[in-house]
Amino acid sequence: MSLRFIEELPPGLVRFIRFGTVGTLGLVWDTATLYALRPLIGLTAATLAAYFVAASLNWAANRFWTFRDAGRFEHPVLQWLRFLSANSLGFTLNRGTIFLLYFVSPLCVRYPVIALAAGAIAGLAANFTLSRRLVFREKPPESLQELAEITTGLAEPEPIDPSPPSASPPGTH
Predict the structure, then answer these.
(1) C-alpha to C-alpha distance for 36 and 112, rounded to whole angstroms
(2) Which residues contact 91 (CB under 8 A, 6 or more apart)?
(3) What is the value of pTM for the model shown?
């Protein structure tokens, strides 16, 4: 089965599908880290630590695959820090859902993967929107005011050109 049909979809939808695919891998990384750390540091600390492992791996995968055509102007560590801070709303939705489920469902405490999956779904839209608007951009906001306007939707982020850079125009060699 060929996945060529994906290339015929609108670029924003393709990017969202890729972001969701990376998020699914993130759920695997999140789950593996939580289950590995839980016996050592307990459920609560393992849940928090696992987020940062998964978020860091998700940032890298999104940088090199989902948003490979954007955000290459800055140092990776600065972009990673902006990814973590921009996705703080997603973190709140994600981990808030997880801890709520731990609180109300003994099944989720016994099988944390259930709560992790619910948390991933809860944070998906916020993380995609904030990553697209604030992290993976062609040009960073030039001022705090511009950042606030983009975050609140008062201004649109600079569009990303999905086409690869072309060679020099003819006659310029």
Answers:
(1) 12
(2) 51, 55, 123
(3) 0.75
